[in-house]
Amino acid sequence: MIITRTPFRISFFGGGTDYPAWFREHGGAVLSTTIDKYCYITCRYLPPFFDHRHRIVYSKIENVREITEIEHPAVRAVLGWLRWERGLEIHHDGDLPARSGLGSSSSFTVGLIHALSALQGRHISKEELANQAIYVEQEVIRENVGSQDQISAAFGGFNRVEFRQGGDFEVAPVILPKERQLELHRHLMLFFTGFSRLASEVAKSKIANFGARQTELKRIGAMVDEAIGILRRPSTPIGEFGHLLDDGWRYKRSLSDRVSTAEIDKIYESARAAGALGGKLMGAGGGGFLVLFVPPESQPAVRKRLTELVHVPFQFETDGSRVVLYQPNGL
Q: Looking at the whole model, is its pTM more than 0.85?
């Protein structure tokens, strides 16, 4: 039996420039961090005593004989791509709901590939893990997804990720004094809006607008290094990071009319009225988690104003996808 633990992520700046349709022509960059909320994948060889050959347990239970019968798109794609032959039992557990904007789909894909590699007794590097997950999601499943989520899930940490026109990427940890990183963390709040959505559908509408939104996307990409500059200059008030988040959210909303909704706009403006300096909806948009930048003294007022939403405390994490149980012997 193998169990992998793969983190979810919060993306601060640069989202949209990580789509191949954009960075293969213009390059791109994102600033993001993984958090201590995880996707757990358990894999083992299924003993040959059952009518079914594969058992997949997530929000539903699938017992099938052929890989092509599997309904879960990532499981079907990964096993088909690997030309997997032996029977498998796969269980998924997550700390947070799916389709919530924290990269949960990519965390699942990364965790599954990692678990299957370990089950075969093969070590896989973080770079290979990210590249394989990107390939499966973009080329096998053919989803409208970017490339940052798979990289964040595989590598972990608080990183600047650069996407080059040739298709490769570079992960650079953002090195800060501990107190500055703690100061940033103390100003962040995460809320679940309760609205879930299919990221691929929202992303499709954004990609269709790339040609008409080049100015906005270039500005979104430039904010990555501006944000890092704010964090690295101790003399710059940390609140400038929050104001930049607000600017970034307004640019992001301009990419597609499906990024936000009237309900989400109302939530965001309520938080701003209560003291939040900025924030953004996670992921492609349309629903899910909302991250807010709020001075600590204003956080009680924001929690009170958003009392109908679930507030999710979190910590930064640095490990990325890990094998947390390795017992490979099986039937």
A: yes
